[in-house]
Specification:
There is one protein chain. The protein is α+β, with helices and mostly antiparallel strands. It is about 40% helix and about 25% strand. It has one domain. The strands form two sheets. Strands 1, 2, 3, 4, 5, 8 and 9 form a seven-stranded mixed beta sheet that branches. A two-stranded antiparallel ribbon has the order 6-7. The longest helix is centred in the middle third of the chain and has 22 residues.
Length: about 250
Amino acid sequence: MADITETDWSFKELYGSDCNRAGRLEDAGSPDTLVTKLQAELTNTISRGSLRVAVDSPGNQFVEKRVTIQFQVPPDIYDWFFNARTGYRAQFWKCPDVGATFNKQIIEALSCTLHNKLPDEVSAKKINVSFEKESRYESYEGEESISREIISTSIKSSISKIWIAERLYGAAAIENIGLAVLMDAARNLPKLCIPRWQEEGCRAPYPAECQSWLDLKGAFVHPKGHVHQIKSQQERAETIHRSGWT
């Protein structure tokens, strides 16, 4: 499939305010190189002991468990991942199936890193999820030890996804970093020029280092071993293709 052109995806607004950032995005490496960089940053996060692991469950019974892995990346890699023509969203811009294939490639690489680098048991935050007037609320419900096997089962390439972290699971509180980063992008930062996408998809967030985290969100794992997702990967891929957002 042909590369994305400047007509399709322009950094002209960024050049007007931050030539260095625009130049980095213009010269971003290949999608394969991005995958390698993400693997390295996941390894670094594990080595520092700063990996965040959480589990939630339908109905909050914690019978079926979905694993979320959060790891930190430098802001420039976050920028590449989300905003470059060779980044994650750009693959979905090309075609939903191309995006889904790239998502699978990333998950395969990162799940391999998790399997090789994590200990047999990992402490995870239990996340209580509730809904009120179509809003989602999360709170801690303690911690539990989960096995590397459960993590590997949940983080499967065909049913898991990666995205920018919107809620960061800290030691004592859940911080809504996504709201701060995206609101800053909407109010203060230049946007990408992508004719197909509306304003929300054209936001070009560039977080502070403390907010520069990515999410690996797995599937729900039943004690008997079968897995499922609430939202289909195809539906997600088509949404990002149309709007640049999910």
